[in-house]
Design a protein that fits this description.
Layout lengths: L8 E11 L29 E3 L6 E2 L15 E7 L2 E12 L7 E2 L5 E7 L3 E7 L8 E9 L4 E3 L4 E3 L4 E2 L10 E3 L5
Parallel strand pairs: 3-12
Antiparallel strand pairs: 1-4, 2-13, 4-8, 5-6, 5-7, 5-9, 9-10, 9-11
Length: 181
């Protein structure tokens, strides 16, 4: 049985890895719906509405390490809790494939609210990405007793760019799920 419950995770999404780029602040595609923790109340159903497909812009691909952090293209994971119980914090994991090996990105956990009946919003900005690749993420919750448990489903962050001179890929329409906070 679970040692802690983050009662009623309202929405967990990479905001489909919303872009944190100098050239675009538009929401990205396919946010992941939240999954309710074992002892939590069921998460509300999130309505999905079609959003027009957006062409992926051309740009530089590869390592962004030589750029200043504020100039890098990034994936930003965002999630919200309605309340928390014995929550120490969160770690964020990333993989190159949905079923691949996930590596922890957070050097130190993102500090949780402990025990609280208030809504809390969290985010993690991953600027170590290749803007031309897709990535997969999930968030892991950590209780004050040290118990770790997968907190969100695995969710996809689509590429933010395509290589200069490459053909535009076929883009599927995105879905947008409202944040029910």
């Amino acid at each position: 049985m679970r040692q802690f419950a983050l009662t009623a995770l309202i929405a967990a999404a990479l905001c489909a890895c919303s872009p944190s780029t100098p050239e675009s602040h538009a929401p990205a595609a396919t946010p992941a719906p939240a999954s309710a923790p074992a002892q939590a109340m069921p998460a509300p159903k999130l309505a999905k509405a079609a959003v027009p497909a957006k062409e992926i812009p051309e740009g530089e691909c590869g390592d962004q390490g030589k750029l200043a952090p504020e100039q890098r293209v990034a994936n930003t994971a965002r999630w919200t809790t309605a309340s928390e119980q014995d929550n120490f914090g969160f770690d964020v994991y990333r993989s190159d494939t949905e079923k691949g090996e996930f590596k922890k990105l957070t050097k130190d956990p993102i500090v949780g609210a402990g025990t609280s009946d208030e809504t809390h919003k969290y985010e993690y900005r991953d600027d170590s990405v290749d803007p031309c690749r897709e990535y997969w993420y999930y968030v892991e919750g950590i209780s004050t007793s040290g118990t770790r448990e997968k907190f969100t489903p695995t969710f996809r962050a689509p590429p933010k760019r395509r290589a200069v001179g490459s053909a535009a890929p076929a883009v599927t329409p995105a879905v947008d799920a409202p944040d029910k906070t």
